[in-house]
Amino acid sequence: MEAKMDLLGGAAQYDICRACGGAQSNRIRDALDRWIYPAVRPDGKRVSLLKVLQTNVCENDCFYCTNRAGYDTPRASFTPDELARLFMELVQRRRVQGLFLSSGVYGRSGQAMERMLATVELVRRRYAYRGYVHLKIMPGAQDAAVEQAVRLADRVSLNLEAPTPERLARITHSKELHNQLLTPLRRAAALARERAGRVTLTTQFVVGAADESDSELLQSVQSLYHNLGLARAYYSAFQPLAHTPLEEHAPTPTWREHRLYQADFLLRCYGFAIDELVYSPEGNLPRACDPKEMWAVNHPEVFPIELNTAPESQLLRVPGIGPVTAKRLVARRRDGKVRDLQQVAAAGGSAARAAPYVLLDGHRPAYQMALWQADAPGV
């Protein structure tokens, strides 16, 4: 059982369930409990998840994946009873607070999904577990399976991997974007709306494997947020693996993944529209600075913003000021004016980053120009 857990826990590492990155160094690993991952629940609470595949047997041919069909790797599977019992043992020992369950795709239509659903049914019914479950929906899942997944889980997800059918075709010949991926995702979204926020929906992209641009990814994500009520998109920087069709493909730098997360936050939490983001001629986010500051530099007509009178929506446009800081600064006005940058820092913001873009009771604060600005005039 321990060897099987090591194999199937390790195989699950490429499904991302936290804000940024999938590095193995972030897992909790000791002599007793392996492959326990930190994650953030939809309510913001941090939890430790048992993150595992039901099986790493897979009939799909994703070019970046070591679980792909035909790849020479040890294979293993959990029965629903085995995995449910193992998970509940970890819960009872207070080693985990939730389950993240995915699987390879194999057998007759829906077979992988059936085994995953059977595992979660046992966890919910036999063991009366009421805690957090994140359940993957398999490509091409039927409506009945999607409905059961939404009923059982707190979060469901289906990985799109690429933003368009053309890009997806570059990294797999066994998945079709609209019918196999977007159709069950739309069904899950409709069911999630009926449950009034009791279950959330996410997806994941493999960044760089299909040579897509950042603008392509973010256009797709904005559509998912607007049309499906997607809670989160996750971005996984492509890293080539030996003996896969993409082993010679250049790796995606982690800074690109980070920039995508920053831009994603602007779309979800800051009121930015997709056409406000600044891209390179190739459609990529700049490495030089984060997307919010790049927008600010390119819109000098908006600044400086008076911290003592600007509405919250304008404060959110200031680099170094996020949603929490903006709310605190607005509330601070009831007790008097904001007169120095230390009050910005005390509210949770970055005084140094905000300084070039604000007024404090009509006066500009002193600030040090960022080196990238000094080196790149006219950006």
SSE layout:
Layout: H1 2-11, E1 36-40, E2 46-53, H2 80-92, E3 98-102, H3 111-126, E4 132-136, H4 143-152, E5 155-157, H5 165-168, H6 177-194, E6 200-207, H7 214-228, E7 232-237, H8 254-269, H9 291-297, E8 305-306, H10 312-315, H11 323-332, H12 341-346, H13 351-354, E9 358-359, H14 371-375
Parallel strand pairs: 2-3, 3-4, 4-5, 5-6, 6-7, 8-9
Antiparallel strand pairs: 1-2
Strand order of the largest sheet: 1-2-3-4-5-6-7
The SSE order reads HEEHEHEHEHHEHEHHEHHHHEH
Helical percentage? 25-40%
Question: Judging by the overall fold, what is the CATH architecture of the largest domain?
Answer: Alpha-Beta Barrel
Looking at CATH, the homologous superfamily of the largest domain is Aldolase class I
| CA-atom Rg in angstroms | 23 Å
| Sheet of most strands | 7 strands, mixed
| Portion in strands | 5-15%
Helix/strand-derived category reads: alpha/beta
The overall number of domains is 2
- Extract low-pLDDT stretches: 20-32, 371-379
Q: What is the CATH domain class of the largest domain?
A: Alpha Beta
Q: Helix count?
A: 14
Distance between the termini: 57 Å
Overall shape: it is globular
Kindly identify the CATH topology of the largest domain.
Answer: TIM Barrel
> pLDDT average, as an integer?
88
Strands, count: 9
Short characterization:
With 379 residues, this protein is α/β, with parallel strands linked by helices.
Word description of this protein:
It is built from 14 helices and 9 strands. It is of the alpha/beta class and 379 residues long. The chain folds into 2 domains: 2-276, Aldolase class I (TIM Barrel, Alpha-Beta Barrel), CATH 3.20.20; 294-375, no CATH class. A 7-stranded mixed beta sheet has the order 1-2-3-4-5-6-7. A two-stranded parallel ribbon has the order 8-9. Helix 2 links the parallel strand 2 (46-53) and strand 3 (98-102). Helix 3 runs parallel beside helix 4, helix 4 (143-152) packs across helix 6 and helix 7 (214-228) runs parallel beside helix 8 (254-269). The radius of gyration is 23 Å and the shape is globular. The model is unreliable at 20-32 and 371-379 (pLDDT under 50).
